[in-house]
Each structure stands twice: as structure tokens, then as C-alpha cells.
Amino acid sequence: MIIHVKERMKAFVASNARNEDYQFADVKIDTENVKAIMINEVVPSNPEDDFYGKNNPPFYLTTTLPLFSKAGSFLSSIEDITKAGIYITNAVKIPKSNTTIEKDIIKQCIPLLEYEISLFPNVSVIMLMGDVAKKALNHIAKSKTKKNVIPTGATYKLRNDEFYYENIRVFPSYIMTGGNILIEKSKVAMASEDIKKMLQLIQ
Fold first, then answer.
1. CA torsion sign, 34 to 40 to 45 to 51?
2. d(Cα 197, Cα 199) in Å, to the nearest integer?
3. CATH 3.40.470.10 fits 2-202, yes or no
């Protein structure tokens, strides 16, 4: 089924009497085709810089596409990525005003992320691109199972273990947007390796 994610998410917000100015993925996508979800940290200040934004290119893609390239993938646009069955979103739907994101803001957005994940019935992989995404999915899982999906610990120590949320394989990895990823080459390498594993699982 093809849906417009932004419109579907706005309807969900309205039905729950929420009034925040959230940002959602402005994309039409075949929900049946999506096999993997990549959850980034937070939406950008300018919606047109998001993964599906109209800027040429959107800022978030300038650091994301090279990760796919380093993973040995020929996916070179957001259209290629979605056609390959990969949906990219952000855990926090409100732009951050400080260098860190407050816990209350993360919690506020968790019901939105949980609903968003539920839109895709055939997902077999979820990639948690950074600690905020990890916290958000852990909160969703704990409310259902009383257990975290990803245990406490450094990502580089956890990323080679196997974790599951229900029947979905979960990869803890590193944030794929913003200036930090341009500097920390070791995290770029590890995130690319994780993406390569994801691609192998869904192909």
C-alpha cells in the first residue's frame, strides 16, 4: 500500500490531540516494500534539509549517501534507497535547540516513532543510528516486554552482537548526519560496515 508518510503521521497526531509542530518524512512510499528502517537522531531545523527534503542535495543526505558508498552499495539517491526497501526517519520529530536533546523531548516523540514503525508490516531490520535512536527503541520495547532491546554499553562493543525487537533484527550503530560524522572516521567506518550487513540481510 502506498502512503504519504507525512499525511499519515499528521493524522495520527491530530487524533491524539497533540499540538506540537512536528516534522515528518515528506515521502510517498510502498509500505509493503519496506524491509529496513534506519532511525536517525533528530529532524533538522530546516525541513528541506531532511532526507526527503527539496534542497539539492538535502544536508542530511550529504553524510548519509557516502556511508552507503563505503558499504559497497550503488544506492546514490534517496529514491534509490527507498526503492531498495529502506525507509529512513528520525527518532525526535522536533529540531533540537541545544547540543543535546532533553529526555522529555525524546519521550514525547516515542509514541510517534512507535506508530511510524507500525506502518511497515514487512520490516526485518531496524538500524539505530545513534544513542537517541537506541534510547527511543529501548523505551518502546520496554513498555511491551519489560526489557530493553539494546543493553547498556558502548556501541562499538555491542554492534557485533545480535539483538531483536519482536522478530526484527536490530543493529546499534552511529549517527549518520551532522558534523561529527565528518570528523570521526572510525565511526564512519563502523556505520558503513553495519549498513553493509543490513543490505545483505534484506537483499
1. negative
2. 5
3. yes
